[in-house]
Design goal:
Helix content of chain A: 10-25%
Oligomer: heterodimer
Structural class of chain B: mainly beta
Shape of chain A: extended
Strand order of the largest sheet of chain A: 15-23-22-21-20-18
Radius of gyration of chain B: 19 Å
Number of helices of chain B: 1
Largest sheet of chain B: 5 strands, antiparallel
Distance between the termini of chain B: 23 Å
Largest sheet of chain A: 6 strands, mixed
Number of strands of chain B: 9
Number of helices of chain A: 10
Shape of chain B: elongated
Chain lengths: 855, 132
C-alpha cells in the first residue's frame, strides 16, 4: 500500500508539472494598483518598463498553455498586458521584443476571476513603443545568448498556516542547485556543452511567510498573486540574501499554488541603492510538487526558451525535449529527470558553434554526419541541420542517442522538427515531424532510422538516413532548386448569358525558376473546374491548365473565384483571379420522364407530360416542334415569366404504323441563350402477347420446416414480346425472379419458396400476380401452405412402439417420425434415432419405463 | 423372489444329504452366482441404434454401456431393448441375473438396426452375444 500511495503521488506531481511548468508575472496586488487605488477603471494609463514573456501552463481543464506578456516596471512591479501580436510588431515581435524597454499606453481592466490569473488587473494596451531605459536599469536577461555563469538562488517559503510542511529539506534543494549530477548546474553545463552554467547557485530556507496560503492563492479561481508571493518570500529571506549576486530566483513554496507553477522573469527592488531602478531577474514560482524536470523546464523558460511539441495541438507530448513532455526517466529521489533540449533551442541560446550547423542550400544534395546532440564530441561533425522550405519555414535535423541526460529518450534516432510560426502562441516554435499522424510524436513515425527517407515533395526536400555509428547518424539531405510560378494570362474573365456556359479558357503555369516545379492547383468556386490539379513543369517550361465554367443555377451578376497554385517555388503559393459575368436571359428548362412509348399495334399509348420552365431572369417565348408525324404536342408554344412553368402533353398516334421501333425528336426553341432544347421520343409498336401460368403451388411441412420450392411457369403464348412482372401478396412467399421478357412461344420458370418462420399450424394461402403487356394481364396463381403441427411424443412411448409393447402410436405420429427420419415409408429404429437427434435428446438421459428391479 | 427361495431350499437339502450317515453319497450341487451379464455387438458397419431381445431367466436392472441411451421392457420375462448411441460396438448392454454361470442359457437377437445416418441396417449383418 505504501508503494501504491507513492506512485499515485508521483503521478499527480507529474500531471501538475505538465500543466503548470511556465512563468507568469503579477502586476499589482489588491490595493496596489500601479496607478494607485484612486484611479478609475478604464482610465488611460502610460507605464514604462521591460517587456517580459511569461509561459503559463494550466491544468488541462483550465485551457491550453499560452505565452503572456508583462511589463516589469522600474519599481519592481509586474503589469499584466492585454496586447496583440500586431501591436508587439512595433517593438520587434512577440518573442524578440522581450527584454526591450518600452512604453505602453492602455486602460485598466479587472481579470481577478480568470483561471490562471496572476494579477488582479491588466492593462488593455492601445499602443506600444520603444522607450529609453533609465540610467542604471539592469540589462535585459531574455532573448540573448546564455553563456558563462548565471547563478540562481532558490528561496524556500512556508505559508503561515502550514509552518511545519516542507516538501523536501533544505539539503534537497541545495543539492538540486549543485554541480553534482543531476544538479541543475551539472545539467545546464551538459546541455550547453559547458558554455553556460549556474555555478554559484544555492538554496536558503525555510522562511515563514507573514500570511496564510489563502491570502496568496485562490483555489476556486485557480489563481495566485505572484506579486505578493514574490515580495513576501523575498522579504523573508532578504536578511540572508543579497539578491543582486544572482541573475535568477526560484521561489519555492511548501504547498500548491492553485494548480499552477510559473516561470519567466520579474523585477525586484531589494538590496539596491536609492534611486536605482528595480533589477530584473529570471524568476520562477514553484509549487510543492516541483521536481528536477519542473526546475529545469521553468529555468529553461527563464533563459528564454519556448515549448516544443508534436504537431497535434498539444504542448507536453514530446519526450525529446525538456521544454515539452520529458517523462521517460524517473528517479525515486529527484522525481522526473529532464532530458536535453532540442537543437532549435540550443541554437537559440547560442550553444551550437556556427561551424557545427549545416544549412542545406537550395539545389544541394549533401551527405553529412550528425553527431549526437547530447555532447559536443571531439570531431567537427555537425550537431544540427537546417533545411529550408519554400514557404520560409524550415526543418531541423538532429541525432539523439542514449548518453548523459538523454539516457532515457524514447529511442535512439534522427529526429526532425518543423520550425514555424505558431499563431496560438504568436511565436516561432518547433514541432516534431511525425508523418504517421497518429498523435504520438515519440513513436516509430517520428524516429528516422537507417534506410528510411523523409520526403517533402511539395518543398523538394528529402532526408535519407544512410547509416548509424556509435555516436552519430549519417544522413543525406537534398533540397531541389526552387521553381518560380508565373501565370499567363494573369487573370481570367468569363462573360455569359444566364443558363449557358462560356467556352473554356486556358492559362499557363510557367516556371521561370531554376529548379523543376512540382505544383498543385485548386480553386474555391463550385462553378469553376480545372482540367489538371497537379503537374511538373521544367525550368523555363510551361503547362496549360484549362478552366471550365458552369453557370447553371447562377443568378445574373458578377462572380469571383481564386485559383491557387502551390509547389516548390520561391514564390509559392500564387493565385490567379477569375471573374464571371452572368447576364440576365431566359433559360429553357424541360422536365419530363423518359418519353419511351410501347404499345400494341393499332392501340395508341397513354399520353406523357412535359413541363417547360423558365429559369432565367427575363420572359421566355417558346415554341415546340416534332420531326415525326406520329408525335403531337397539345400546346406547342407559350410565354413564361421568369420562374414560371407550364405543362404540355405529348401524345402518340399509331394510326398507319407497322410493327417496329420508331424514334422522334421534340425541339423546344425560344429567345433563351440555351435554345434549342430537345427531347427524344421512342415508340415500339408490338403484337399482342398472351400470358399463361402453370404449376401447382401447394406446400406442406411440419411447423418450422421449409418445404422444397415449387415451380411456377410463365409462358407467352401470344405474339410479340411479353414484358412481365410478378409479385406475391404475402411476405412468406418469395420468387426467384420478379420480372423479365418473353418472346412469343417461350416461357420462364420461377422457383416459388415459402418461409415457415412465424406461421402457426394450419393452412395459409397467398396469391401471386403476374402482370405484363398481354391482352389477358394480369394472371394469378394461388399458393397454399399447410403447416402441420409436430406431435407431442414421449421417447419411451416411441421406443415401446419399436419393442412392440405399450400403446401403439397413431399413423400420423408414425408418419411424422418417418418424415423426420429416413423417410422410407415406414417407422424404424433409424427414425427413432433421428427424432431423438432433432429433439435434442441424444445428449441427456431420459426417464425410462418398464420393470425396475433392485440389483 | 419365489424362484430364489426355491433354489435356496434345494441347496439346503443337498447339504443335509451330503452330511448324512450311511446312505449313498450325492455330490454337492454348485451354488448359484448372482451377477451381471453383458450383451456385446459387432458389425462390419457402424451401428447407431439397435432393437434387440434377450431371452433367459431372471433378468433385472438392464443398463446401457458406453454412454448410449437405453429403453427397455421386461414385462413378459424377455428383455426387449432399444439402444441408441453415437456408435454401438462391443459391450452395449448389461443386466443382472441370478446365476452368471448360466450365461450360456441367455440368447440375444437383433430385431432391427440403423446406421449412423439413421438408415436401416440388415439385422443379419450384426452379431450379438451374451457374455459374463
Amino acid at each position: 500500500m505504501s508503494i501504491r500511495l507513492q506512485v499515485t503521488r508521483t503521478w499527480l506531481g507529474r500531471a501538475v508539472t505538465l500543466a503548470a511548468s511556465c512563468l507568469a508575472i503579477h502586476a499589482a496586488g489588491p490595493g496596489r494598483s500601479p496607478l494607485g487605488p484612486v484611479e478609475a477603471r478604464a482610465q488611460q494609463a502610460s507605464v514604462s518598463g521591460r517587456l517580459t514573456g511569461i509561459w503559463e501552463d494550466p491544468l488541462p481543464e483550465r485551457g491550453t498553455p499560452r505565452l503572456r506578456h508583462f511589463l516589469s516596471t522600474d519599481d519592481g512591479r509586474l503589469v499584466s498586458l492585454r496586447v496583440t501580436d500586431a501591436q508587439l510588431q512595433f517593438v520587434g515581435g512577440p518573442l524578440s521584443g522581450h527584454g526591450q524597454y518600452v512604453e505602453v499606453v492602455g486602460s485598466w481592466r479587472d481579470r481577478r476571476r480568470t483561471p490562471g490569473a496572476t494579477a488582479g488587473r491588466e492593462l488593455d494596451v492601445s499602443s506600444v513603443r520603444f522607450a529609453a531605459s533609465p540610467a542604471g536599469a539592469s540589462p535585459p536577461p531574455q532573448g540573448a545568448p546564455i553563456l558563462g555563469s548565471h547563478p540562481w538562488i532558490t528561496v524556500l517559503c512556508r505559508f503561515a498556516d502550514s509552518p511545519t510542511i516542507e516538501p523536501h529539506p533544505l539539503s534537497w534543494y541545495e543539492e538540486l542547485m549543485g554541480s553534482t549530477e543531476p544538479g541543475v548546474d551539472h545539467y545546464w553545463r551538459e546541455l550547453s556543452f559547458d558554455q553556460a552554467n549556474v555555478a554559484g547557485s544555492g538554496a536558503l530556507g525555510w522562511y515563514d511567510l507573514p500570511q496564510v496560503r489563502s491570502h496568496y492563492v485562490d483555489d476556486e479561481a485557480g489563481s495566485a498573486n505572484l506579486q505578493l508571493l514574490k515580495e513576501d518570500c523575498a522579504a523573508a529571506a532578504d536578511a540572508d540574501v543579497f539578491f543582486p549576486d544572482y541573475v535568477g530566483i526560484n521561489f519555492q513554496f511548501n504547498e500548491s499554488l492553485g494548480g499552477f507553477s510559473w516561470g519567466g522573469g520579474s523585477s525586484l527592488n531589494l538590496d539596491l541603492p536609492d534611486g536605482v531602478p528595480a533589477r530584473f531577474y529570471r524568476m520562477t514560482w514553484l509549487a510543492d510538487w516541483a521536481d528536477h524536470v519542473t526546475y529545469t523546464h521553468e529555468m529553461g523558460h527563464g533563459f528564454g526558451l519556448p515549448h516544443s511539441s508534436g504537431p497535434y495541438g498539444q504542448v507536453y507530448d514530446s519526450n525529446w525535449d525538456v521544454m515539452s513532455g520529458s517523462w521517460t526517466n524517473h528517479d525515486s529521489f529527484w522525481g522526473w529527470l529532464a532530458p536535453h533540449t532540442i537543437s532549435y533551442h540550443k541554437n537559440m541560446l547560442a550553444w551550437i558553434p556556427a561551424g557545427r550547423i549545416y544549412d542545406a542550400a537550395e539545389g544541394s544534395s549533401q551527405t553529412i554526419t550528425l553527431h549526437r546532440l547530447a555532447e559536443l564530441g571531439s570531431g567537427g561533425d555537425y550537431l544540427m541541420a537546417r533545411v529550408p522550405r519554400t514557404d520560409g519555414t524550415y526543418y531541423t535535423v538532429e541525432s539523439r542517442h542514449f548518453v548523459g541526460y538523454d539516457g532515457n529518450l524514447p529511442a535512439e534516432a534522427v529526429i526532425m522538427h518543423h520550425v514555424r510560426f505558431d499563431p496560438l502562441k504568436g511565436i516561432n516554435r518547433a514541432f516534431v515531424v511525425d508523418p504517421d499522424d497518429n498523435g504520438n510524436p515519440d513513436d516509430d513515425g517520428a524516429r528516422w532510422l537507417p534506410g528510411e527517407t523523409f520526403s517533402d515533395p511539395a518543398n523538394g526536400i528529402t532526408v535519407t538516413i544512410d547509416s548509424e555509428t556509435a555516436d552519430a547518424f549519417v544522413v543525406t539531405i537534398s533540397v531541389a532548386e526552387p521553381g518560380h510560378i508565373v501565370f499567363d494570362p494573369a487573370t481570367l474573365d468569363f462573360a455569359v448569358d444566364q443558363g449557358s456556359d462560356p467556352a473554356p479558357q486556358p492559362f499557363a503555369v510557367q516556371n521561370t525558376g531554376t529548379g523543376e516545379l512540382e505544383w498543385t492547383a485548386s480553386d474555391d468556386a463550385t462553378w469553376l473546374d480545372l482540367d489538371a490539379s497537379s503537374g511538373i513543369t521544367a525550368p523555363a517550361g510551361s503547362t496549360d491548365i484549362t478552366v471550365s465554367v458552369s453557370s447553371a443555377g447562377l443568378a445574373p451578376g458578377t462572380y469571383g473565384a481564386t485559383i491557387t497554385v502551390s509547389g516548390n517555388a520561391d514564390n509559392t503559393p500564387q493565385t490567379l483571379a477569375v471573374s464571371l459575368e452572368v447576364t440576365a436571359a431566359p433559360v429553357i428548362t424541360l422536365i419530363a420522364d423518359p418519353l419511351d412509348f410501347e404499345t400494341l399495334i393499332g392501340v395508341d399509348p397513354p399520353v406523357h407530360e412535359v413541363v417547360i420552365r423558365n429559369d432565367g431572369e427575363t420572359e421566355l417565348d417558346w415554341t415546340a416542334s416534332s420531326d415525326a408525324p406520329w408525335i403531337t404536342l397539345e400546346r406547342g408554344a407559350g410565354t413564361l415569366a421568369p420562374g414560371a412553368s407550364e405543362m404540355d402533353t405529348v401524345s402518340i398516334s399509331v394510326d398507319g404504323l407497322e410493327l417496329g421501333d420508331y424514334v422522334g425528336v421534340l425541339t423546344f426553341s425560344g429567345n433563351a441563350p440555351n435554345s434549342p432544347q430537345t427531347l427524344e421520343v421512342t415508340l415500339s409498336v408490338t403484337l399482342s402477347p398472351s400470358m399463361a401460368l402453370s404449376g401447382t403451388l401447394e406446400f406442406e411441412a411440419y411447423e418450422g420446416d421449409t418445404p422444397a420450392p415449387r415451380d411456377l411457369v410463365v409462358a407467352n403464348d401470344g405474339d410479340g414480346t411479353l414484358h412481365w412482372s410478378a409479385s406475391a401478396d404475402e411476405a412468406w412467399v418469395s420468387l426467384s425472379s420478379t420480372a423479365g421478357d418473353l418472346e412469343s412461344g417461350s416461357e420462364a420458370t420461377l422457383a416459388v419458396e415459402v418461409d415457415p418462420a412465424g406461421l402457426s399450424p394450419g393452412t395459409h394461402t397467398a396469391v401471386i400476380t403476374v402482370t405484363g403487356n398481354a391482352d389477358n394481364s394480369p394472371q394469378t396463381a394461388d399458393v397454399e401452405f399447410v403447416v402441420v403441427a409436430r406431435p407431442d411424443l414421449d421417447p419411451q412411448n416411441v421406443a415401446d412402439q419399436l419393442m412392440g409393447v405399450g400403446t401403439p402410436l397413431s399413423p400420423t405420429e408414425l408418419e411424422y417420425l418417418d418424415d423426420v427420419g429416413n423417410d422410407n415409408g415406414s417407422f424404424d429404429v433409424g427414425d427413432f434415432r433421428a427424432w431423438l437427434q432433432s429433439e435434442g435428446l441424444m445428449s441427456r438421459v431420459r426417464p425410462v419405463s418398464g420393470e425396475e428391479v433392485a440389483p | 423372489m419365489r424362484t430364489r427361495m426355491r433354489l435356496l431350499s434345494t441347496a439346503a437339502a443337498a447339504l443335509i444329504l451330503g452330511c448324512g450317515g450311511d446312505g449313498p453319497t450325492t455330490p454337492l450341487q454348485p451354488q448359484p452366482e448372482p451377477g451381471v451379464l453383458q450383451v456385446t455387438l459387432s458389425s462390419g458397419t457402424a451401428v447407431g441404434a439397435v432393437v434387440l431381445s434377450v431371452s433367459g431367466a431372471g433378468m433385472t436392472s438392464p443398463v446401457a454401456s458406453g454412454g448410449a441411451q437405453l429403453y427397455y421392457d421386461l414385462s413378459v420375462g424377455t428383455l426387449r431393448a432399444v439402444v441408441v448411441g453415437s456408435s454401438l460396438s462391443g459391450a452395449i448392454l448389461r443386466f443382472t441375473v441370478p446365476d452368471v454361470k448360466q450365461a450360456a442359457t441367455y440368447l440375444a437377437t437383433v430385431q432391427e438396426a440403423a446406421n449412423l445416418a439413421n438408415e436401416p441396417l440388415a439385422a443379419a449383418g450384426i452379431s450379438v452375444s451374451v457374455v459374463r
